[in-house]
Amino acid sequence: MKGAEALLKAMEQEGVEVIFGHPGGAIMPTYDALYDSPIRHILVRHEQGGVHAATAYARASGKVGVVMATSGPGALNLVTGLADAYMDSTPVVAITGNVPRSLIGTDAFQEADVTGVTMPITKHNYLVQDVNDLPRVIKEAFYIARSGRPGPVLVDVPKDVQLAEFTGSFDVKLDLPGYKPTLRGHPRQIERALEALEKAERPVLMVGGGAQDAHAEILAFAEKTGIPVITTLMGLGAFPGTHPLWLGMPGMHGTVAANRAIYHADVILAVGLRFDDRVTGKVSRFAPHAHTIIHVDVDPAEIGKIVRTQVPIVGDARLVMRELLRGAKPLRLATWWRELEEWRTRHPLTYRPRPHLQSQEVIRAFYEATGGNAIVTTGVGQHQMFAAQFFRVSRPRSFLTSGGLGTMGVGLPFAIGAQVARPGELVIDFDGDGSFQMTLQELATVVKYKLPVKVVVLNNGFLGMVRQWQDLFHAKRYSEVYLADSNPDFARLAEAYGIRGVRVERKEDLKKGVDAVLETDGPVVAEFKVYQEEGVFPMIPSGASVEEMITEDPRQEVGA
Amino acid sequence: MRHVISVLVQDHPRVLNRITSLFARRGFNLESLAVGTTHVPGLSRISLVVSGDDRTLEQVEKQLNRLIEVLKVTDHSEPHVERELALVKVHVGGLEERLAIKDIQEAFRARVVDVAKESLILELTGDSNKINSFVEALRPFGLLEVMRTGAVAMSRGERVLKVREKREEAV
Question: Is B79 exposed, middle or buried (0-12, 13-18, 19+ CB in 10 A)?
Answer without folding.
Answer: exposed
